[in-house]
Amino acid sequence: MLLHQTGPAVSLAQESARWHQQADAGMAWVSIAAAGIPPFDSLLERVASARACGFSVKPIIPGPLSLLWSLSDGSEAGLEQLDGLLDAYDDLLLALGKHGVEWVELNEPQLTQPLSPVWIAACERSYNRLQRTALRRVLAVSGGPLVDNLGLACNLPVDALQIELHDAERELVAALDRLPAYKALSLVLPQPEQSAALAAQLRSVHQRLGDRLWLAASDEGELAYWAVEIGNPSSIAA
Questions:
Q1: Distance between CA atoms of 149 and 194, rounded to whole angstroms?
Q2: What is the pTM of this model?
Q3: pLDDT along the chain (238 residues), means of 10
Q4: By Cβ atoms counted within 10 A, which residue in 104, 118, 186, 200 is the most buried?
Q5: 10 Å Cβ neighbour count for 103?
Q6: Beta-strand (E) ranges in the chain?
Q7: Rounded distance, CA 75 to CA 159, Å?
Q8: 3-class SS of residue 82
């Protein structure tokens, strides 16, 4: 079971302090969140700084579907920009690989909303295209439950799917039913006081998925709580 930390973009000074805190906590990766549009100014510089300090790095970047939707206000005319945007993603992922990055997280909040067939096709096209680079990819769905697009998200060609738990019993059953056998499932956990019977359910999921179950939370304290509750805190990643 892999535990890792989520979080927004912060200043370089704050980020550097966080890297060391995560390293002291035994985390295998540090996360570097980017915003805006490619080439995501300063991201490569921050990755290089973290690597120079001896850390492994997982960049967190906006996913192409959600970024293009936000740039075009959901207009299908915006899809004319897709090829150029994917060219920029290819260049970025190639550069990250040259900096020693192995994992990248692509955040797609738009997958929590209904999509028309043309936008679904654009999403599938985007992630098929992003297979050109050797980086391993986490598809992260944030901002709400993954309902209408669960099948789409589970079947996109990525190495891990990350979802937020809102109605854990229903969402976990649906995700497990559709998750391909090769893909890891990363769960963004609620605050510990909301746990109720969730820990027992997660222990059952861990027995089924083993190392393909990842747990995520916003700080080290939450991760430590869930690691103890589930009873198998093997490796921790940021």
A1: 26
A2: 0.88
A3: 58 76 72 86 90 91 95 93 95 94 96 96 96 92 90 96 87 92 89 70 88 78 69 47
A4: 104
A5: 19
A6: 2-5, 29-33, 56-62, 103-107, 136-141, 160-164, 184-188, 213-217, 235-236
A7: 29
A8: helix
